[in-house]
Amino acid sequence: MLRPILKYGDAPLHQKAQPVAAITPDVVRLIDDMIETMYAAPGIGLAAPQVGVPLRIFVVDLSVGREADGLLTFVNPEFVEREGLQLEEEGCLSVPGFNATVVRPLRAIVKGLDRNGEPVQTEGNGLLARAFQHEMDHLDGTIFVDRLRGIKRDLIVKKIRKLTKSGKW
Ligand code: GNR
Ligand code: NI
User: How is the chain split into domains, by residue range?
Assistant: First the structure.
């Protein structure tokens, strides 16, 4: 089932998500809905708070469903290692119409549980490392806009505020 994607300003996006206590049928349904919603958007990643659920779950698929082994699901993810720096353009399904250059680690190893509750650990480089960090940020209530400083951030926040006031956000 498709779930609506929340936008910048919606409370769950700005709050820390809680660890998943057990992978119940409800949690499995949530993961399946997140995958469907990510592909439909389309996006390369989606975190549970983006669909209004304050749990520590994200999905990533750089191939957006085109490759059979492209999908990664993490429940209660943690960074094992982060290394290097990259500066690239970044966007977010919860901040449609905006993007900005964000500093991220070049390489990241994430561990967690998959949708069957089995331990998984994956190394990401470049865009995958960026997606890992972007989704982990969502679990901590951080959006890429929060990582910007100065006029770049002010401009985006101002434009969103204006869109919100005119009912276009
Ligand atoms: O679809 C997405 N593309 C993207 C591009 C560069 C850096 C991060 C991302 S994640 C984003 C989907 C999303 O908002 N996930 O939370
Ligand atoms: Ni995002």
Answer: 11-165
Amino acid 94: pLDDT: 98
Calculate how far, in angstroms, residue 49's C-alpha sits from the geometric centre of ligand 2: 10
Question: Residue 92 CA: which ligand 1 atom is closest?
Answer: 14
Model pLDDT, residue 62: 98
pTM, two decimals, is 0.98
Residue 45: beta bridge partners?
A: 60
| CATH, range 11-165 | 3.90.45.10
Buried b (16+ CB within 10 A) or exposed e, 2-28: ebebbbbbeebbeeebeebeebeeebe
pLDDT in tens, 50-90: 999 999 999 999 999 999 999 999 999 999 999 999 999 99
